[in-house]
Design goal:
mainly alpha, 434 Repressor (Amino-terminal Domain)
């Protein structure tokens, strides 16, 4: 059973995923209808969905999987809030000029270069953690 804080965090992730959905969902009744069209298991009620959105309850793992597939997010992220593993760290060629390494062709600032150099000294696992943190921050920023 999820703790209250975990249920609230799930509700926030669900709302964020819904804002990124191609078809806007404005009410819990709409969400219930759209969910039930996609879920092969037991249908959900508008009241159950209302509880999901307000952090009072969380869906079962099979329902989370349906939500994630429908909304185009990772099941792991929707359930736990962290990206799942498998993030590959790309190594940049040291022979490539700094201005070409930065997206958009802008020159790399000294603090950005320091961050990159520091990340290269971390283990692959630690590098993945940093990337996942940045990805999470960007997702939260999009929701603002």
């Amino acid at each position: 059973m999820m703790a209250i804080d975990e249920k609230q965090a799930f509700a926030e992730r669900l709302k964020l995923a819904l804002t990124r959905s191609p078809k806007p969902i404005d009410t819990s009744a709409e969400l219930a209808v759209q969910f039930n069209l996609r879920h092969a298991g037991t249908p959900v009620t508008q009241q159950a969905v209302h509880k999901w959105l307000n952090g009072k309850a969380s869906p079962t793992p099979d329902k989370i999987a349906t939500l994630a597939a429908w909304l185009g997010v990772s099941t792991h992220w929707l359930r736990f809030g962290l990206p799942d593993g498998g993030v590959e760290v790309q190594r940049l060629s040291t022979a490539e000029p700094a201005a070409r390494r930065y997206a958009g062709g802008a020159a790399v600032r000294a603090d950005e270069q320091h961050l990159l150099d520091s990340m290269r000294r971390l283990s692959p696992h630690q590098q993945r953690l940093i990337i996942e943190l940045v990805d999470q921050l960007l997702l939260e920023r999009q929701g603002q």
